Known about the structure:
Layout: E1 12-14, H1 22-29, E2 36-38, H2 43-52, E3 57-60, E4 65-69, E5 72-90, E6 97-110, H3 113-116, H4 120-141
Parallel strand pairs: 1-6, 2-6
Antiparallel strand pairs: 3-4, 4-5, 5-6
Amino acid sequence: MGPIPIPEKGLILQGASTSASPDTVVAAETKSQVMRLDLADGVLEDIMRASKMGKDVHMSFGKNVTLHYGNRSQQLLSLAQPTPSELYNYTPDKEDELRFAGLITHKLAQKKAQEDIAGADAAMEALKNQMADHQQNKNNKK
Length: 142
């Protein structure tokens, strides 16, 4: 979607109440839960490809948040946004109006590969050193 044309008279933001708490606004204006989703390069393309092939794409919430697409799964971290953001819908037939869709209070982010394997490189290096020391000791005993 391209940029939204803004009329000279401005835009009307419909539905968001500044006097209500964020929880009240979301409950009153929409039943949809809105979250920002941060994915690594290529994951969105994989999700779109799986969807086009008719494979299931869904999220599982609970203790661990998991994105399932096709035969793959990605575990996601749920992080509170320091500053909530409002999300609005634009309809071309109502050029001067944006409708409140929800409040973004959390983001779901993919676990970084570096975090998942943080100690793996160090552990592999230590194992290689131990094996080399063992081989050296074995050769010295001969």
